Amino acid sequence: MKIICIGLNYLDHIGESDSTTPSSPVVFIKPDTALLRKNNPFYYPEFSNDIQYEAELVVKVNRVGKHIEKRFASRYYSEVGVGIDFTARDLQRECRSGGLPWEIAKGFDHSAPVGRFLKKDEIDDTSNIRFQLDVNGKTVQKGSTLDMIFSIDEIISYVSRFFTLKIGDLIFTGTPAGAGSVQVGDRLAASVNGEVLLDFTVK
Ligand code: MG
Questions:
Q1: How far is the CA of 65 from the centre of ligand 1 (A)?
Q2: pLDDT bucket at 18, cuts 50 / 70 / 90
Q3: How far, in Å, from the CA of 119 to the mean position of ligand 1?
Q4: How many Å lie between the centroid of ligand 1 and the Cα of residue 103?
């Protein structure tokens, strides 16, 4: 499986990251070794001094598809969850300043914790799926699919022009404002529509 990630998909995060609004989705991929499941702890890696969390809504692909039209895109995912797009911001800054790819800053081992998933059928309104991240009991990020620049369906349609989607692939759909640094000992709890689906500590 692969993990497809969308960057810069919320205006308020673009503002805080000194970026400009993209005209098409910004796409990158994390390898399957980035996955961290079952609320296992995240071990702070030795190669960075600035690991930052980005809480993101995650959709799980449930059928194979390529060149998916937007109007059919909702048929290609049946579960929704939440994940953290961990980013070694110091490495990313170095790579970006050199105009180089920043895979190592985004795709390192366990840089993609994901929790339980909810069935899409059980969500009343997929155009307004709310999610949030609490760090040590304090809410630091809040988002909704309402505020996405590119909707889930637009993302599925766009990425499937380049990558065949396969069953079990995950799509991270971008982070809202409030991305910030984690410290050893932090506890991260992320929820979708008020239900906690991911809860782990940084060690
Ligand atoms: Mg992100």
A1: 24
A2: confident
A3: 23
A4: 12
Residues with CB under 5 A from ligand 1 (ion): 54, 85, 175
Query: Residue 14: pLDDT above 90?
Result: no
The domain defined by 3-201 carries CATH number 3.90.850.10: yes
What residue type is assigned to position 39 of the chain? N
- 3-class DSSP state of 81: strand
Cα distances (Å, whole numbers) of residue 63 to 56, 73, 82, 129, 167: 22, 11, 20, 22, 5
Q: Rounded to the nearest whole angstrom, what is the distance from the C-alpha of residue 64 to the centroid of ligand 1?
A: 24
| CA-closest candidate to residue 188, choices 178, 179, 200, 175 | 200
Q: Where are the domains of the chain?
A: 3-201
Asked if 145 contacts 151 with a C-beta cutoff of 8 angstroms, the reply is yes
pLDDT digits (tens, 9 = 90+) for 92-150: 999 989 899 999 999 999 999 999 999 999 999 999 999 999 999 999 999 999 999 99
Distance 7 CA to ligand 1 centre (A): 5
CA–centroid distance, 158 to ligand 1, in Å, is: 17
